[in-house]
Amino acid sequence: MKAEEKEVKKTEEPKKETEAKSKEEKPVEEAIKSNEIIDEDKRAKRDVRNIRDKTFDKESWQPKTGLGKQIKEGEITSLSELLDEGMNILESEIIDILLPNMETDLLLIGQSKGKFGGGKRRVFRQTQKKTQEGNKPKFGTVAIIGNKNGFVGTGYGKSKETVPAREKSLRNAKLNVIKIRRGCGSWKCGCGEPHTIPFKVRGKSGSSIIELMPAPRGTGLKIEKECGKILELGGISDVWSKTFGQTKTKINLIKACFNALKQLSEIKVQGRIKEELKIIDDEIKEPVVKEEVSEEIGSETSKIESKAPKSTNRKFEETT
Fold first, then answer.
1. What is the pLDDT of residues 123-146, one digit of tens each?
2. 158 forms bridges with which residues in the sheet?
């Protein structure tokens, strides 16, 4: 009996040691995971910037649709005409050609694990599926693109890994580009420049509702932070907003904001009101100053100076 008790004690001692080691390793593993999550977010944003900096090679692209072939041949050069006709964009490379100066960004829709719900906001929204084999995680992201001059698009991507999810969201954002109406619709402002929206609009997705209202110049974007990124890439600098419902669900709130921006171009406006509110449907073209004109003006002024008679001081000559 004594020999058996000694064997039981020997087996219990290594079990206790393994349990103590596992307890010590758990906080270390959690810390490593949290650092990996932060590194993934930084890596994702860095990769998005690298994608934006890369130039698109038009010659190596092989279009699969009729619209893509027309754009590659140069028959269609304007994105606004393409959207006005209601043509479906099925290839993301079309936007790469027609919007060469676009900017991209990822929205913070997820949250890392933290005590008392105080985890850091992150780019990826992680969900899990319980199976007999174990937990199967998936990652979702929301990407936005725009040129800060009347064009903006949003897209959602989901995958088992972070990199494919990010690529899906960017591709869907390019296929979902819309044109935004801008103007000076606030009664407190009369500057006549397209810095805000021309009238109040309302968008809904799920239980999240958002109202966008025109604001005077200098107000800024008085709206939720992630929705403000969408308006900034669309070229809107001043707006007031009001939200209703369950606004903590970021994806529904972003969709509601995008649906509100869609209504700006869907509402019919008379020509008289367009002039009053200074509504602009297309992008603002910057004035191009030709160098040849400036050179001609400089040559003409030099000729006039050469032909001008030189002033003579006769009084000084007479005195000498």
1. 999 999 999 989 999 999 999 999
2. 140
| Domain boundaries 29-54+99-172, CATH class | alpha beta
d(CA 9, CA 233): 69
Supply the pTM of this predicted model: 0.73
User: Start-end ranges of CATH 3.30.160.20 in the chain?
Assistant: 29-54+99-172
* Class level of CATH domain 201-277: alpha beta
Distances (CA, A) of 199 to 230, 257, 263, 268: 18, 15, 10, 12
Q: Among residues 230, 223, 229, 226, which one has the least CA distance to residue 249?
A: 226
CATH 3.30.230.10 domain position(s) in the chain? 201-277
Q: Long-range CB contacts (< 8 A, 24+ apart) of 83-91?
A: 83/177, 83/178, 83/179, 84/179, 89/174, 89/175, 89/177, 90/64, 90/65, 90/175, 91/63, 91/64, 91/65, 91/67
Contact 154, 258 (CB under 8 A): yes
User: Which pLDDT tens digit goes with each residue over 37-52?
Assistant: 556 666 666 655 555 5
Residue 95 to residue 276: CA distance in whole angstroms? 33
